[in-house]
Amino acid sequence: MRVIAGTAKGTQLRAPSSDGTRPISDRGKEALFSILMPRLQGARFLDLFAGTGGVAIEALSRGAAHALCVELDRRALDDLEHNLAKARVADRAEVVQGDAFAVLQRGTAEPYDIVFVAPPQWKALWDRAILTLDTRPEWLAPGGLVVVQCDPQEVREQQLEHLHEIDLRTYGGVAFIFYGSLVV
């Protein structure tokens, strides 16, 4: 695991100590960030199910102003905090140990430009996360983007009120589903 580009380019990150954490591949990360790059400069980035922090760290390395990383597993959190420090981006990150759904229910004082959702696979958690975000539109800034990472076989259409699917990209064993706010 490494940071691909930006101020922390080349930094080797600690691999997951937790069984439930599956880091994104370099190929998947490159594809995702080539799409996100125009939106990253100065962005507020929310990483639900942050794991070891590879995606949030990549966002910060490439110019995001702030990242909120939410992770429940204590071992993954230790890896995340280590990786933020090693990449020298910890000063622009906030780490919350807790259940992503409980955090979403509490609400936010300031919306996020990009919300990244990559929960453990095959547990219908991404469905639950996108439905929760749909009922809590204050989490997404105007013009913001929600990105779901899942296995391509998990992809299914969602009935949403405030969000709509913009794009779906598949790269081998990973799918990215992009959602934006409906303009009313």
Fraction in beta strands? 25-35%
- Percent range of helical residues: 25-40%
User: How far is the first residue's CA from the last residue's CA?
Assistant: 41 Å
Tally of individual domains: 1
The average pLDDT is: 91
SSE string, helix = H, strand = E? HEHEHEHEHEEE
Q: Using the coordinates above, name the CATH class.
A: Alpha Beta
Kindly describe this structure.
It is a single chain. With 184 residues, the chain is α/β, with parallel strands linked by helices. A hairpin with a 2-residue loop joins strand 6 (163-171) and strand 7 (174-181). The mean pLDDT is 91. It has a single domain (26-181), classed as Vaccinia Virus protein VP39 (Rossmann fold, 3-Layer(aba) Sandwich), CATH 3.40.50. The chain is globular and about 40 Å long. A 7-stranded mixed β-sheet has the order 3-2-1-4-5-7-6, sandwiched between helices. Helix 4 (100-106) packs parallel to helix 5. Helix content is 29%, strand content 27%.
